[in-house]
Amino acid sequence: MSVRDSPALATETCADSYYSPVPEFGSVTTPATDERDPVGGDERDRAGDGSDPTLGSPTGAGEDATPAFRQELVASVRASDLAVLLAVPVLLLAIFTLPESTRRSLAFAYADPTAVTAFTAHYVHLDVGHLAGNVAGYALLAGVGYALAVLGDSRRFFLTALATFLLVFPFVLSALNLAVPRDAIGFGFSGINMALAGLLPLLLGTYARERFHVEGSVRALPAVFFALVGWIALLALPVSTSGLGLAGLVTGVASGLLAVLYASAANLSLRASARDLARAVTSRPGEGDLFVVGAVLVVGYPVGGFPGDPTGPGSVVNLYVHLLGFCLAFIGPFALLATGAFAE
Fold first, then answer.
1. Which pairs count as long-range contacts for 28-31, CB under 8 Å and 24+ apart, including other chains?
2. Model pTM?
3. Total domain count for the chain?
């Protein structure tokens, strides 16, 4: 979220959403925060003749593999799925065409919350830049996530999670935002975008299991989650010699240790799993490329979602809502995934 100051009103964005302080007659209130912002598949089909099924096509088959992969991806896409995915940016754009006074009335006022605005606030934007950033982020996260899901035999898992993020998370994130009292309004889609970012590691895990047959790819996901939380802490709390300067470093180190402890308790060899995965990814053009894109997005997207300095020109990023969206989107779906709720 971002906060904007004007002669009559200060505006703040939250959860990607923007938070705007509620104005009093003849005065401007202090701005609050803004939230911007079992192995599947047939090994024989995926391995080259005489090759290890975990490594895929034999050397020299790369030129034929990539076009075949693209054809498989296109063939896996369903028109109904695309309609659902495209409905989100269409809705965001439609709401943006409403008069600004109407959009402000749909924002979530922390001093006067309602169930209606708890939901609508996450689809409201007040300026083009905020809207464009969230639509671009959604396109990246939803597009890559969908591709990983349809090729990783996790279509139902992805669509169920997406529906939950779009229909349930707005209420959850708005309610949890009330834990930080402030005289402001919140709005924006970034909280939901961060939920999609939290889902992406799970989709990478199911994709690796299905396409590369890497043992333990899903069981290792909590270790990945701890490592990502440590990365987020380092981003949001840069190291310095004053104030909270060491908090990010301490949290990052602690999260890294938790990742190692979890892997040890689960009898996972992170080094062996990473080595097997790297060999599989590099030996399978197309499939490996998609995995790399997803991995880069998992690591790179938090850089924009958790800036070291959350303040900007007239705005403040709501790191709290971003972290909530990311963590809740991983923990809940992983629990269902681990119990086999989406086993095909």
1. 29/183, 29/184, 30/183, 31/3, 31/4, 31/5, 31/184, 31/316
2. 0.80
3. 1
